Amino acid sequence: AWTTASIIDETVDAIRAQVGDGRAICGLSGGVDSAVAAALVQRAIGDRLTCVFVDHGLLRAGEREQVEKDFVAATGAKLHTVDAERRFLDALAGVSDPEQKRKIIGREFIRVFEVATADVLAEETVDFLVQGTLYPDVVESGGGSGTATIKSHHNVGGLPDDVEFTLVEPLRALFKDEVRTVGAELGLPEVIVRRQPFPGPGLGIRIIGEVTADRLETLRAADAIAREELTASGLDGEIWQCPVVLLADVRSVGVQGDGRTYGHPIVLRPVSSEDAMTADWTRLPYDVLERISTRVTNEVAEVNRVVLDVTSKPPGTIEWE
Ligand code: XMP
């Protein structure tokens, strides 16, 4: 029978067979797939795996700590964190267009990852790159597997030529829910194993307008409160994901105590979905909405209004950008 333990044993054996006494590198995103893939490879080859985590400054509250502390404590994995917030913010300065933001974030991410890889390669020879490809991705892409190239054309130094890696994809036979079960069995923290989908460009595409450090801080605080209250209400299982969006270029008048405020609205975008292709807005109980609204407007100084998005997909997308 396909027990979780037997899936883990067979996968670990397969990784050992593939990697032999070689070395591997794995980029962590903070999400469940890369974390479980890395945990399996760590179990198979131990310290011959190096994990690389790029903090682009667009993560939600606590996510870096979940990787640096909780993931490392649970797996014992060797982790190399790159602090790249300044670099991403500089690259995003003055940019409001969503596709432009995505392009810049994607480009910077690859460059930073390549620099980090060059650092690792300066100390050891690495032949394998771990990726958290799932079964549905394998089917969609026609089943091919193979290699990935890290390019040396950005003057990163340390990379003599383009470096080709053989891919290790330990999740190729698994669906998302199986990945979560395997992750739990491997002892990964609940916050990582249960994490709802979060886009690669992170909070960068949840600030409508230019991305700045102050705006990120505001959105991070509001998002943390919304997530805390949704989890406390026991509704995580019904919600596919709940983007919290900062309308940074919009201000509205409010009143607090004796004073007039002129702050920003945030939008709650709770959706229910099977696969993110279509989605319906989640009918959250009014008392949960009230708690989020009261706390956000009390605790986050720049936010004086909380609004609810009641649009299905289509016609609305899940994200606002
Ligand atoms: P939309 O907004 O298109 O989102 O309805 C569908 C799903 O994809 C996620 N999403 C992204 N994920 N990079 C990602 O890795 C992106 O640029 C991106 N844009 C949207 C979104 O969170 C939802 O789960």
UniProtKB/TrEMBL annotation:
Function, in words: Catalyzes the synthesis of GMP from XMP.
Uppermost EC category: ligase
Molecular function per GO: ATP binding; GMP synthase activity
Enzyme Commission number(s): 6.3.5.2
Name of this protein: GMP synthase [glutamine-hydrolyzing]
An example Gene Ontology CC term for this record: cytosol
Reaction(s) the record says it catalyses: XMP + L-glutamine + ATP + H2O = GMP + L-glutamate + AMP + diphosphate + 2 H(+)
Full protein segment contained here: 196 to 516 of 516
Alphabetical keyword list: ATP-binding, Glutamine amidotransferase, GMP biosynthesis, Ligase, Nucleotide-binding, Purine biosynthesis
Residue stretches making up the GMPS ATP-PPase domain: 2-195
Pathway where this protein functions: Purine metabolism; GMP biosynthesis; GMP from XMP (L-Gln route): step 1/1
Subunit structure: Homodimer.
Residues that hold ATP according to the record: 29-35
